[in-house]
Amino acid sequence: FNQMSAALATSRDELLRRNEELLALNAIAVAVGHSLHMETILDAALSKVLELMDFSAGWVFLQEQGDSCLVLAARKGVPADLFRLDVGAPRGLPEELCTCQQTLRTGSVQLVEKIEGCPRLNRLDPEEGCGVCHASVPLRSGDRILGLMNLVCADDWCPSSEEDLGLLTAIGHQIGVAVENARLYHELQHKEELRGQLLRKLISVQEEERRRIARELHDQYAQVLTALSISVEAAERVLPAEMTAVRSQLEEVKHLAAQTLDQTYELIFDLRPTTLDDLGLMPAIRWYAESRLEPLGVKVHLKTSNVRQPLSAEVKITLYRVVQEAILNVVKHARAHELWIRLEVSNSRLHAVVEDDGQGFDLAEIQRNESDGRGMGLLGMQERMQLLGGTLHIETTLGQGTQVCMDLPIDPLPAEGLTEAGGDV
Q1: 140 vs 33, which has greater pLDDT?
Q2: pTM passes above 0.70
Q3: Mapped to the 3 state alphabet, what secondary structure does 125-152 carry?
Q4: How many CB atoms lie within 10 A of CB 43?
Q5: Is the predicted pLDDT of residue 124 greater than 50, yes or no?
Q6: Cα separation, 326 vs 33, whole angstroms
Q7: pLDDT at 302 (0 to 100)
Q8: Residue 261 DSSP one-character state
C-alpha cells in the first residue's frame, strides 16, 4: 500500500510538473504569436520567460545569416554597459570572448554555475549584482540555430535538473521558430517592396514611352497627314471640272486622310491625355468617356462627391489608366446603353466606381485565362492599384452589367487635382 501511495504521489507530481511546463510553453506561444516583428517577439518572449521562471535578467543574441558573430537583439534587467564591451568586435561578439557561445556548436543548453566563469559578466562592477547562474539557451528552428537566449538567476537556484533543461530547450525551440517566421516575413516584405519598386519603375518607363510615341505621332505622322489633306484640296482646286473620276478619287483620298488623322489624334490622346495635365483628372475622364462611348450610343453619367483634396501625379495617372481600361472594356465587350462613373473622397481615401448596364462577363473564366488581352488588362488594373496601396474589385454577372470598384489612399501632395468640388458633372 505504501508503495502504491508513493507511486501515486510521484505520478501526481510528474503530472503537475508536466502541466506547469505546458502552461509555460503555452504562455510563451501566446506571447510570441501576437506579432511578426522581430523586436516585439523577442521582447515579449524574454519578458515571459523571466516572469515564469526564477531568472532575474536576460538577453538575446541573434546570428545573422552568413555571419559568425552574434548581435544583441533584446535585453531585460541587464545593464547597458554589458553590451558596450564589444568594442573589439566588428559585428557583435566573436566566439573567443564568450564561453556561452559553445551553445552554437553543441546545440544544447549551457550552464555557467559561477558567474565569474563568464568573461563578459565578470567585467561588470560586482555591485551590479548579475547573479550566480548563467544559462545559455539555443534558439533553434529545425536543424538551424538562429541565436541564443542568455538567462541570469540572482538566487542560489540553478536550472540543472533534467526537467529544467528540457523546458529551457523546448522554450528555445519555440522562440526559434518564431524568430524564423519573423525573418521569413521580413524577407517577404522586402521582396514585395522590391517588386513594388520594379513595377513602379516599369510603369514610369511605360508612361515615358507613351509620351515619346505620342510626341512622335504628333510631330511626324499627324503633320504628314495634315499636309496630305492640304495637298489634296489644292489639287482639287486646279483640277478641271470634267475630270470627275479623278476628283472622286481625290475625295476618297481626302476622306481616308481625315479619317486616319482622327484615329491618330485618338491614339495620341490614349497614349498621353493632354487634358490630364492641363485640366485635371475629371475633365480628362469625362472627355475620354464621352468621346469613346457617345458615338456608340452609350449615355455617360459622371458624379463626384467631396472631391476637393489635390491629388499627386502618381494617383491621377493610376486612376486615369484604370478607368480608361474599364471604359475600353465597355467599348469592346459590354454592348451597354448607359455608363456611370462616380468618384468620392472619404477618410483620406478616393473611391471610384465605373458601372455599365451591359451584358456582363464570366469573371472567373477571364481570370483563369490571363494570357489573353482582356485578362492581362484586368491584371494590369489590379497591379496599378496595389502599387499605391489601393484595391480593385469587380462585380459582374452575365446579362446584368459590370461594376468596377476602386479604392486607394490619397497623398496630400501639392499637386494639381480634381477641378470639381462635387455634384453632378
Answers
A1: 140
A2: no
A3: CHHHCCCCEEEEEEEEECCEEEEEEEEE
A4: 19
A5: yes
A6: 42
A7: 93
A8: H
Give the residue carrying C-alpha cell 542560489: 156
The DSSP annotation for 357-384 comes to: -S----HHHHHHTTTSHHHHHHHHHHHH
Distance CA 246, CA 239 (A): 8
Confidence of residue 403 (pLDDT cuts 50, 70, 90): very high
Model confidence at 343, pLDDT cuts 50, 70, 90, reads: very high
Span 75-115, pLDDT tens digits:
888 776 666 644 444 445 555 556 666 777 788 888 776 66
Answer for the pair 63, 91: CB distance below 8 angstroms, yes or no: no
Q: What is the DSSP annotation of 187-243?
A: HHHHHHHHHHHHHHHHHHHHHHHHHHHHHHIIIIIIHHHHHHHHHHHHHHHHS-TT-
Distance CA 30, CA 34 (A): 7
Map out the domains of the chain with their CATH numbers. Answer: 2-190 (3.30.450.40), 279-425 (3.30.565.10)
* Continuous segment of H or E residues that includes residue 174: helix 162-216
Confidence at residue 118, expressed as pLDDT on a 0 to 100 scale: 60
φ, ψ of residue 297 in degrees (nearest 5)? 85, 15
d(CA 184, CA 344): 38
Strand ranges for 257-413 from DSSP E: 299-305, 338-346, 349-356, 391-396, 402-409
pLDDT digits (tens, 9 = 90+) for 201-250: 877 787 788 888 888 888 888 888 888 888 988 888 888 888 888 889 99
Residue labelled with grid coordinates 481570370: 367
Distances from the Cα of 332 to the Cα of 210, 310, 320, 335, 374, angstroms: 22, 33, 18, 8, 10
Q: Which of these, 275, 348, 341, 276, lies nearest to 306 by C-alpha position?
A: 348
299 half-sphere exposure, CB direction, 13 A CA radius: 4
